[in-house]
Design brief:
10 helices, two-stranded antiparallel sheet, 300 residues
Amino acid sequence: MARPDLNLLVTLDVLLEEGSVTRAGERLALSPSAMSRALARLRRVTGDPLLVRAGRGLVPTPRALELRDRVRGLVQEAEEVLRPAEKLDLATLERTFTLRSSDGFVERFGPELVAQVGREAPGVRLRFLQKTKKDTGPLRDGVVDLETGVVEDALTPDVLSKPLFTDRFVGVVRREHPLSAGKVTTARYASSRHVHVSRRGLTEGLVDEALGSTGHQRKVVTVVDGFSAALALANASDLVATVPERHTANLRRGMCSFELPFRAPEVTVSLLWHVRLDTDPAHRWLRGCVFGVCRFDEQG
C-alpha cells in the first residue's frame, strides 16, 4: 500500500479554511492550475468532491465539514512537532533525573547540587543510584540520565563524556593509628595492613603499581567494593585505606589523612550521558549544574 502524501493535509486545511481555490493557491504560493490539480488529488484520495460549486463560489461537502476540525488539529500538531523547542523555563520545569555514581560522590557534591537545582528549578527531583559495576547499559536503556566514573576504555559512539575533575589518592587511618604520628615513609606505609577497594574483588590496583616502582609491596588483608566500607573498616581498626582525596572528602571527616610517600596515582572522573540527551535543554542545564558544583569545589 502506497504511503499517503502528507503534504496534502496542509493543502486540504487551507482549502477548507479559504473555500476558494484561488485564495488557497495564493496562501500556498501555487498557481491556479497547480492548486486545481492538488484539489483533484485530494478528491481522489478521499473519494469525495470536498468542495462543490454553488453559484459563483465553492461550498464544502458534509465529508469536508467532518474533516475540517480533524485536519486543522493534525496540521497544528505537525507544526508543533517541527517547530524548535521552546526556551527552557526552569521555574515551571517538572522532571526527575537519575544520576549514578560511586560512593562518596553524593556525600561530597550532592548537597550543593541539590541546593542549586532547588534554587533554579524547584520542580526537579534528583534520584541518586549507587554504581556497582562499570557498564553503560543503564545510560543506553534510559534508566540513568547521568553517570560519573573513570573512563578507562574507549566508549561506544552513543555514549558521550566530559572530564569533571582529577583526583589523587591519599592514605587514611584512624586517629589512634601509628601512621597518624610522625613521618609516613614508604617502608612504614608498606609494612602496615591495608584494605583495598575493588568492585571486581581484585587485590591489587593503581596504588600497588605506583608502590611497586619503589621496590615495596603492601599487605592487603581485606578487599571491599566501595570507599565507604574501606573507610569504615579503617576507622574501626588498624587498617590503612587508600582512597581518592576529593571524592571521599566528606567520608574521611574525623580521620587522619596523609599524602602518600611515593608518587600518588591520579584518576580523572568524567561525566557520562547518552547521545540522545545531548541536545535536550533540561539535560544540558543539569550537566552544567554538575560541572559548576565540581569546579566550585575545586576552586575552593
